[in-house]
Design a protein that fits this description.
Layout: H1 6-20, H2 28-55
Helix pairs in contact: 1-2
Length: 56
């Protein structure tokens, strides 16, 4: 199984946000922006942790 790409992670998160918000129509860009921001923060944290683990 291949690791998820950034776009796949964002798409999944945007869908989760959309569902949690009642599946409102017409807000796709808003959910995408929020999901991208969250996923980018997660990836940055994962990279920091990986670097920290390599330095230990």
């Amino acid at each position: 199984m291949q690791p998820e790409t950034m776009e796949q992670r964002i798409r999944t998160r945007a869908y989760e946000l959309w569902q949690a918000d009642g599946s409102m129509e017409g807000c796709a860009d808003e959910y995408w922006r929020k999901a991208r921001s969250e996923v980018e923060a997660e990836v940055a944290e994962e990279q920091r942790q990986a670097l920290k683990n390599r330095q230990s």
